[in-house]
Automatic annotation (TrEMBL):
It comes from Podospora australis. The keyword Amino-acid biosynthesis does not apply. GO terms for molecular function: fatty acyl-CoA hydrolase activity. This is HotDog domain-containing protein. Coiled coil: none annotated. Residues 58-135 form the Thioesterase domain. It comes from the Eukaryota. Keywords: Hydrolase. InterPro entries: ACOT13, HotDog_dom_sf, PAAI_dom, Thioestr_dom.
Length: 168
């Protein structure tokens, strides 16, 4: 059996797994993304915007925000106690204004609005350094197999999984 963790450390451990096992997240976000807080159903993150996150206009690329919506929705599901976070069935992003340029910090808040036996519904909001809402997303996840892979919301990492440090 794995290790039972407090919510924030559990979510950080799930993020660490994404960074170790995925092809996209470590290349796109690397050390520039961090979980600043997490509680049941809510995850707050920050992204330090670097050139790799921007488009030819030198502002954050919409694809970066869409990828953060995907990852944020997954981490919101993890904040409900599931290490396996399911697969995407729907993802939507509305861009309201520029999210920033190189050197700026983007704040991300991901919330799990509802989690059932089959689907989880999440929303992700993005604010700039001035606290202005710059984008909002929604992400629906198929979680039936994630439930099957666990014994319910346990905040337990799988045996052998890397566990995030308590303090960054």
């Amino acid at each position: 059996m794995g290790t039972k963790l407090p919510v924030q450390r559990f979510v950080r451990s799930v993020l660490k797994s994404f960074m170790a096992e995925s092809g996209l997240e470590p290349r796109l976000f690397g050390p520039h993304l961090r979980v600043t807080s997490a509680s049941k159903g809510v995850v707050n993150m920050e992204l330090d915007i670097v050139k790799d996150h921007t488009n030819r206009l030198k502002i954050i690329h919409g694809g970066t925000i869409a990828s953060l919506t995907d990852l944020g929705g997954s981490l919101a599901v993890a904040s409900e106690g599931l290490y396996a976070t399911g697969v995407s069935t729907d993802l939507n992003v509305t861009y309201l204004k520029s999210g920033g340029k190189v050197g700026d910090k983007l704040s991300i808040r991901a919330e799990c609005d509802k989690i059932g036996k089959t689907l989880a519904y999440t929303k992700v909001t993005f604010t700039n350094g001035g606290g202005e809402l710059v984008a909002r997303g929604s992400h629906t996840k198929y979680v039936q197999q994630a439930w099957t892979a666990s014994d319910g919301p346990s905040y337990v990492t799988p045996e052998g999984a890397e566990i995030a440090d308590e303090v960054d």
